[in-house]
Amino acid sequence: MNVLEQAISAIESGSVEHGLEQLAKLEKNADHQLKHDIAELYHELGHVEKAKKIIDELLMLYPDEGSLYAFAAELLIDMDEEDEAIEMLLEIKQEDPAFLQAQLLLADLYQMQSLDEVAEQKLLLAAQAAPNETIISYGLGEFYLERGDYIKSIPYLKKAVHASERLPNVHVELLLADAYSASGQFEDALEYYERGLKNHLDPNALFGYGFTAFQVGDMILAIEQLEALMALDPDYSSLYPYLAKAYEAEGRLDDAFETLERGMKIDEFNESLYIHAGKLSFKKQNPVEGETLLRKVIALNPSNVEAVQTLAAYLKHTESYEELLELMEHMREYGEEDSLYTWYGATALKEQDNYEKAYERYREIEEVYKDDIDFLEEYGYFLLEFGMRDQAIPKFKKVIEYQPDREDIVELLENL
Hints:
Helix content: over 70%
Number of strands: 0
Keywords: Repeat, TPR repeat
Number of helices: 25
Organism: Halalkalibacter alkaliphilus
Protein name: Tetratricopeptide repeat protein
Order of helices and strands: HHHHHHHHHHHHHHHHHHHHHHHHH
């Protein structure tokens, strides 16, 4: 075992200080190649400044060696000196073997600085210089994927997939599956998720697989993948809404509700989970629980329109007009203005025979719902009941315009 190997062995066995002392002694009399190896080891150990000192010395001896510039740039990046790293990488000439590596590093650096167009130019330049280089195809595919240009990313990632054996520890198939899924090409996405997950079990990919299966309506496959994800990483909060919906679609209401309860324990501030659980409670004929869940959301966030509208619709359906009016008045007090809230308020006031206030509310939203058949019919009957026959007739005539086959309304108009 040579001295470098002894130093490495000492470090790996926990004798870090002793190993570093051996490296320092070895460095004094090392040849240039050995110094480079020591710099790499320092870099791996996190002693970036020591590595940089050696590489700077070597650069003075080999000013045309592109790999040294690339190594120095990596060290500068680790030292948060991105601008200096860019200057170093720009020194590498196109004919240098390290040129491709330099372009990839430059692209990463420019992306970090939100200079996406410049980053793209560097990657395209590298692709032009080496059109068959797998790492460049992968780099471009990943770049477009991260930027949200999913369609652009697909051909590059497909090209990289065909030579993925040259990319150890990179799971191109899963990235390609993400690109297909995000671009709406779900069937292709499912194929690559299946292939990729056989080689690498990844929580994000499992979610993507389950979500994509959900999108195409394959609830059995969605449940299978999302259950696997839940077993692998129960804290992956995004899985719970979709797993619950998949269970619900399969008629497994108890499993759906239990899934939402699990999700609420992990992501207790996710209002959509409570709303879904509330709706599911109504579906399971457990209205008390449903109302409790929805009121909990509203108490924490009166601005949650879905929670308010869901509860209001339930109260109207059950003819709980006093509670409906109370809810709508609370919304007004909170400053939550919504024309649908005003409509619910008008309905509740009408049913409590408070015609004057109900009329005010109907008038507030008359223009908003002038083409809504349900509103026109309700408002028309209210006007008749309130003794405003002449105002009611135009509302019913409008209903007939949209629904000429409404014989009940035709007969009502004839009588009027």
